[in-house]
Amino acid sequence: MNSTISLESEITNLLKVHGSLSVAFITRFLNEMGLDCTRQKVERTLRKMVEQKKVEAFYTNGNKRKHYRLR
To answer: CB-side exposure of 5: number of CA atoms within 13 Å?
Structure first.
């Protein structure tokens, strides 16, 4: 449970600094920071954050990848 809260706060910090990001970039930045996480774990956490209305998901132009940004 504590790791989920930590992951949420780190994702929030990344989105504050970089603006909107895709799951791939969020996962990459987290791994570069030393947090060992998978893409699936990041997606699960982002889904929870969207349900809690902390983050919003959207699609850009013709790109079919979801991007996330803070509300």
So the answer is: 2
